[in-house]
Amino acid sequence: MKVTLLTLLLAVAAFAADAGPLSSTLEAWKQAMLKKDAAALQKMYHADLTYTHSSALTETKAEAIAAVAKASPKAIDYHDVTTKVYGNTAVLKGKFDITNDQNVTSHLVLLTVWLKSGSDWQLVARQATKLP
What we know:
Number of domains: 1
Largest sheet: 6 strands, mixed
Strand content: 35-45%
Mean pLDDT: 87
Strand order of the largest sheet: 2-1-6-5-4-3
Order of helices and strands: HHEEHEEEE
Number of strands: 6
Distance between the termini: 46 Å
CATH class: Alpha Beta
Low-confidence stretches: 1-19
């Protein structure tokens, strides 16, 4: 019983250690979007990025970065975020409220897939669904 409990505690600690950096990555993504920081997004987005909007529009890395420069969000709030780490891959899901420059807020569920590259996480896939 003690061995099982110890194994469980070590697994939880390992998960927490891996998930922690993704929280700061999510905040860095938010700030890059709000500041239209193409250089930060260039580093954060994987070369094979598939970036799908709730309208079903799908963009490549270059298209997603260019779109931010044209119509950057004014505010991004997120909650109910969960992260599962599988080796060098993480799946992050959460509810996002994104307000555009015309003060229209979209309430979305985002499902994102991140790959660890060295000590950094890169976004490789994003799928948005509008909440009713």
